[in-house]
Specification:
319 residues, 8% helix
Length: 319
């Protein structure tokens, strides 16, 4: 399924807007790091080739963000490379499936992520909610310093657009967890400066023609989080479904770099979308990466069926 391409002026405006956000302000940018540069860290990440791959759900899932409930024990993958995000809980379906056509050569298995009840278990919110699926990087190998240019690459299968949840907002997220020194409010109300976590990333956003009298066609794009002020901005338009390769990296100056393209070939410099210091922060430590699966949480509508494969972490070792 191909998204309409006739709105060339609109697409050009998106490209210009993201470029302006990227270049404005006194930003001295380090050389962008193409995700996948360096050595593969085999102790983390996943290729889903084990036919016995399994996720242990441990229902009900957590919803700490909504009601402060973690509901231990939390879910985890049998191979201990993934775990439930306590903040929002795991997707309702986490299942190894045969790799869809056009995937990486030789790949036999990929991972299906899909959700129905993304909010508080048993209490539909009837608004956009999301679940988290978190790679266990920090506990397996520790954090990675920006000096080692950490990066993550994943392949994401987007089904035909008529199989997407017909809901006009972000539907899927691919994100990092990195740390910076920032000013935060303590429980006693005092502000202190300390090392804390923030979550840059890329979202797949769908804008349905249904319910929008001004739109003649369905439209989808990659939205970037975020600029120096913390705001999201539009990146690359999604002009075709099927497999995409997406990646993010951290350079020694703490800047985040975003890359994506259709297909499963390795990323290169031409696939660069943007580079930013999200929220004005400079990353000091790379902790992990994770996926968001979002839907309209009414207890009836399933999210789009997202499939990921070869979720891999790299770094450039210091000499």
């Amino acid at each position: 399924m191909i998204f309409p391409l006739h709105k060339l002026i609109y697409v050009a405006a998106i490209s210009i807007a993201s470029s302006v956000i990227f270049t404005t302000g006194p930003v001295v940018q380090a050389e962008p790091v193409v995700p996948g540069t360096g050595v593969l860290l085999t102790a983390v990440g996943d290729q889903f080739e084990d036919p016995n791959w399994k996720f242990i759900y441990n229902h009900p899932k957590s919803s700490k963000e909504q009601d402060e409930r973690v509901r231990s024990p939390t879910g985890y993958a049998k191979n201990r490379r993934w775990y439930e995000g306590a903040k929002r809980g795991y997707p309702d379906i986490v299942q190894r499936v045969p790799t869809p056509a056009g995937g990486l050569p030789g790949s036999q298995g990929s991972l299906l992520l899909r959700s129905l009840k993304t909010g508080i278990p048993g209490y539909p919110s009837r608004r956009l909610q999301q679940d988290d699926f978190v790679a266990d990087v920090k506990r397996r190998i520790g954090t990675i310093a920006p000096a080692e240019r950490p990066s993550v690459v994943t392949r994401v299968f987007m089904p035909p657009v008529d199989e997407w949840e017909n809901y006009s907002k972000a539907q899927f997220g691919f994100r990092l967890a990195v740390m910076a020194r920032m000013r935060v409010r303590e429980p006693n109300g005092r502000f202190v400066t300390k090392l804390d976590t923030y979550w840059p990333g890329m979202f797949i956003v769908f804008q349905s023609k249904d319910g929008n009298s001004r739109r003649e066609d369905d439209y989808a794009f990659i939205r970037i989080r975020g600029n120096r002020g913390g705001g999201d901005f539009k990146g690359k338009q999604i002009t075709q479904t099927g497999w995409w390769t997406m990646g993010m990296s951290v350079s020694p100056d703490g800047m985040i770099h975003y890359y994506a393209k259709p297909g499963v070939e390795d990323l290169n410099s031409e696939d660069h979308i943007a580079s930013q210091f999200p929220y004005g922060h400079k990353a000091l430590k790379f902790k992990t990466f994770f996926f968001n699966v979002a839907n309209y949480d009414n207890g009836k509508n399933w999210s789009t069926a997202w499939i990921v494969d070869d979720c891999l972490v790299y770094k450039v070792p210091l000499e």
